[in-house]
Design a protein that fits this description.
- It holds the Pfam family LRR_14.
- Keywords: Leucine-rich repeat, Repeat, Signal.
- This is Leucine-rich repeat-containing N-terminal plant-type domain-containing protein.
- It comes from Gossypium trilobum.
- There is one protein chain.
- The protein has about 260 residues and is of the alpha/beta class.
- It has 2 domains: about 200 residues, Leucine-rich repeat, LRR (right-handed beta-alpha superhelix); about 50 residues.
- Helices cover about 25% and strands about 15% of the residues.
- A 7-stranded mixed sheet has the order 2-3-5-7-8-10-13, with no helix packed on it. It has a 3-stranded mixed sheet with strand order 1-4-6.
- A hairpin with a 5-residue loop joins strand 2 and strand 3.
- Helix 3 runs antiparallel to helix 4.
- The termini are far apart.
- The structure holds 2-acetamido-2-deoxy-beta-D-glucopyranose (2 copies).
- The site of one 2-acetamido-2-deoxy-beta-D-glucopyranose has 4 residues, from strand 6.
């Protein structure tokens, strides 16, 4: 006697569904593993024959066994990133900082629609910042500093209203710095210097310390004090663009296009 159809359906769902779903993420990560050189064997537990990657070291999943974190900062990895990373559609944290990763940032990282943090700082990454990163509408942290990136800061990034921390310092970027969207209200002249917060606090301290002798108050300095207080408010956003010799400073809206002599 044949088993009822629902038994077969259940069996097929149970055996096929988790592996189809789970392994596509495992396969993507295993492709990354094969593209990296791993002298310290931090990726040793990345076994592609397991039903999903959720038990692998340095990987975190949600309750549905979808990958939400890849934590491989400071792991002595070299090699290249792979476009397959773009398949991890529940990924929130991609932490690959302080390695020696080369090559370019895959355009496909723009498909990581849940991404909160993209930390690729302190590597040896070259090429341009893909404009596709403008599709990362949940992104809060974008740290690409200390690499060998070239080209402009893509204007597509101004559409990410959640951005709070942007560090692209120590690269070879060119063109101008955006001044709209999340880049609005950044006290840029100060952020181009070192230790901006310290500088601002010191300025404020000096301005507040000695009241004007003739007005017995802060008189003429009140606008400056208010400006510094406003700037400090936006210090909850930390943006750094320093050490990019070819970067020209903030763009002047309505004037010449930003990307002259910059590609
Ligand atoms: C990193 O890997 C190299 C081999 O490529 C090794 O010589 C070195 O000791 C490793 N560094 C650390 C901190 O593990
Ligand atoms: C960075 O990558 C380039 C090749 O793209 C290579 O020549 C160079 O040695 C690398 N730098 C380090 C510190 O590994």
């Amino acid at each position: 006697m044949a088993a009822p159809i629902w038994v077969w359906a259940f069996y097929v769902a149970l055996t096929l569904f988790p592996s189809v779903l789970g392994n596509s993420e495992g396969d993507a990560l295993y492709t990354l593993r094969r593209s990296l050189s791993d002298p310290d064997n931090v990726l040793q537990s990345w076994d592609p024959t397991l039903v999903n990657p959720c038990t692998w070291f340095h990987i975190t999943c949600n309750q549905d066994n979808r990958v939400t974190r890849v934590d491989l900062g400071n792991s002595n990895l070299s090699g290249h990133l792979v476009q397959e990373l773009g398949k991890l559609e529940h990924l929130q944290y991609l932490e690959l900082y302080k390695n020696n990763i080369q090559g370019t940032i895959p355009t496909e990282l723009g498909n990581l629609k849940s991404l909160i943090s993209l930390d690729l700082y302190n590597n040896n990454i070259s090429g341009t910042i893909p404009p596709s990163l403008g599709k990362l509408k949940s992104l809060v942290f974008l740290r690409l500093n200390d690499n060998r990136l070239t080209g402009p800061i893509p204007r597509e990034l101004v559409g990410i209203s959640s951005l709070k921390v942007v560090d692209v310092s120590n690269n070879d970027l060119c063109g101008t710095i955006p001044t709209s969207g999340p880049f609005e209200h950044i006290p840029l002249n100060k952020f181009l210097k070192h230790a901006p917060l310290k500088t601002m606090l010191l300025e404020l301290f000096i301005l507040l310390k000695v009241p004007d002798s003739d007005t017995h108050g802060y008189g003429d300095r009140l606008p400056m004090i208010l400006q510094i207080l406003t700037d400090l408010k936006y210090c909850s956003k930390l943006y750094s663009f320093e050490e990019n010799p070819r970067l020209e400073g903030p763009e002047l809206l309505g004037l010449a296009s930003y990307d002259t002599n910059c590609s």
